[in-house]
């Protein structure tokens, strides 16, 4: 991602932490990133385009963290626990990720439509952001499938209906429940261990 685009997204996220999205002004985002308003509009097209790009970046960051969690550790239960902990921790700290995973968008946040929007932007990253955005159900499926691949290898699609697939989905849904109703400190690991105790992982 070009440096100017990343700086603009950082500036938009910082502005969003401080005030509602409706009060975030494009001129302020451009100034905070040290670029012109024209650069901002060339990159994103509109404030809605900026919102979509911000949501897409946070979704990609969440999924990259899932990949790291699944790559760490040795035991499958340890890797699934790390996945659940990452989900709950990031959602606690990042309001956009929390909204994406739960579907609960407050008036403080941008709430772009999940369906694709027409894009006339010449910037490939923006055309991708203008495509469909994942719903909470999409995230369940994406994370479950990535967990299956991490635990069983590239042929995981063949075992999508197995007990292992159900165990992976159980962990994802348990993590999402912890996003909505956080457990006591350190509680998610214990919840995952208990949930997987009788599961074939």
Tally the helices.
Answer: 10
DSSP strand (E) fraction?
under 5%
The mean pLDDT is: 89
Helical residue percent?
A: 55-70%
Pattern of helices and strands: HHHHHHHHHH
Question: What characteristic shape results from the CA principal axes?
Answer: elongated
Distance between the termini: 37 Å
Structural class: mainly alpha
- Low-pLDDT stretches are none
The radius of gyration computed from the alpha-carbon positions, rounded to a whole number of angstroms, is 18 Å
Question: What's the total count of β strands?
Answer: 0
Biggest beta-sheet profile = none
Please give a structural write-up.
The protein has helices at 3-18, 26-33, 37-44, 47-71, 76-93, 95-102, 124-129, 136-152, 163-180, 187-196. With 201 residues, the chain is mainly alpha-helical.
List the helices and strands and how they pair.
Layout: H1 3-18, H2 26-33, H3 37-44, H4 47-71, H5 76-93, H6 95-102, H7 124-129, H8 136-152, H9 163-180, H10 187-196
Helix pairs in contact: 1-2, 3-4, 4-5, 4-8, 5-6, 5-9, 5-10, 8-9, 9-10
Keywords:
single chain; 201 residues; mainly alpha; 10 helices; 0% strand
Short précis:
The protein is mainly α and 201 residues long. It contains ten helices and no strands.
